[in-house]
Design brief:
This protein has 249 residues and is an alpha+beta fold. Helix content is 45%, strand content 10%. Helix 4 crosses helix 8.
Amino acid sequence: MNFRIACVVLPTLLLAACGKGDSTGNTSAPAAAPVAGAKAPAGQNWVDVVSRTPEGGYRMGNPDAPVKLIEYGSRSCPHCAAFDAEGVPTLKTGPIAAGKMSYEFRDFPVHGAVDMGPILLGQCVEPAQFFPMLEQMMAAQATLIGRQAKIPDADNARLQTASPGQVAVYLANFYGYTDFVKQRGVPEAKVQACLSDAKALDAIAKQTEAANQKYNVSGTPTFILNGKVVTDVADWAALQPVLKAAGAL
């Protein structure tokens, strides 16, 4: 994936690449009998059990849960922000807390270079802080990504020949993500190290390519339930009956 930036109007970019049209698929499946839950390890709650997966995502909940939900999401995608606000809280207090379901978020740079800074900074925390930071980024998305300021023409011209890492740093600063994470306790030195991590950029590119090859991810959010793509579903209202049919709700 080419993470360079073209001179674009961001709101148009967001509407063009985020979401997958009508979310009407999979809504007629009958509800299944609830699957069995499991107790969390002593002294822990399943929502606090978070680990990084080999695919580069972060999984919350019982790793052996019978229902496994994966979201390929973008931190600059309004549909993903809506799902994080509308669906994730119910999942956390319901099937995840009960040990019935695990939820994994995999960053997917659907908007290319625009997403790279937020991804690098969003993963610049310990696993236990990944989801709180993700939640806060999603909640602030309209303020950060939705700003009306335009990249100056001179800067945009320089970005055309800049390295992917340089573009990520510029956009992270331009949209306010650098200050955002520093205000939430990430030290300046760590912020700069994460933004300049060439290996991390390469890993994101490889993970994105792997997602495209395996699941043909064409928009965000894309949901994977027990290893299969949930087609034509891009919001919480449409996902609920799918999870009911799987016995999670």
